[in-house]
Amino acid sequence: MFTRRHFFKTSAAAATVLTTKSSAADSFFNIMQPERLQTRPRLRFAVCGINHGHIHGMINAVKQGGGELVAFYAAEPDLAAAFAKQYPTVRQARSEDEILEDSSISAVLSSGIPLDRAPLGVRVMQHGKDYLVDKPGIITLEQLEEARRVQRETGRIYSIQYSERFDSRATVRAGELVAAGAIGKVVQTIGMGPHQMNIPARPSWFFDKKYYGGIICDIGSHQFDQFLFFTGSTEARILSSQIGLVHYKQYPQFEDFGDTTMLGNGGSGYVRVDWFTPDGLKTWGDGRLTILGTEGYIELRKNIDIVGRAGGNHLFLVNKDKAEYVDCRDTVLTFGRQFVDDVLNRTETAMTQHHCFLATELSLLAQKHATVIL
To answer: Are 365 and 139 in contact (CB under 8 A)?
Structure first.
């Protein structure tokens, strides 16, 4: 049985290893490269469910947008103690309800156990608050249907933090270049999400897909968001997908490989994710994205240039005028400010609700209908 306490203790070890590797490689995650904070808080927000270290990047993003973290709740005493030490001025709530029933709190953030994330989001929206959740934000089609229904009824925001776009300076810069017409009309995206296995640091739930949804649902979810964003697709369908347990046969409920092809009304896409990043790489995964346009292409090496420049956020642009390396270090991350704007103004500048749910639906359909390979 996988208890919440076991989840936290084993996840903490994994987070420590991943943070060390990411820091050495100048990770794209926002927590490593904070923006200038807003001088005056514009809304009060809380955290509920802190079982994954991504919560700190999410908190930083909302703070940068003008949010003030005022309360948190964690069911696990050891997890709560560690969080309270890092955020000593933030009030620790005695229960989830204490946060949900506080009318002064406008938004709730969560990086709880993946299985629990969507049900919490439903409760948050039913209490008149907006919700920002770590990926995967929803792990079954049934959860998605319920989240969509409650979102329509309440009009609240259900947002998923797709950090490979929102917290990647190279990806943000690529979006600016595409919008400016640097490569013409986008035809296709190819997203690669390789990850390092690092078995000793992994919790038991990591090896059972009923807790995280499967490889395409989990680490593949970023790629569907980027496909929709760069192709401008508002409708899409899965053409084919496959999943497999190719190498780690000692974990029969695990998946270590998956890929998908899809077609949208703005272009096509291919996704490949795996757990085969070798230990010799100085980061947790060589995340890559290729954006093919009618007049050029952009290639991103998000975390590392394996034999070249130091750090992360490497962007290469080729079009009819030039082939160049683009420095993304000064690119401003805008998600936090836009999310806070959307909460305050009831707008959709960070990400539309349709986009959020469609990216999730594509990942879930690809996962559910994938051909199993051996």
So the answer is: no
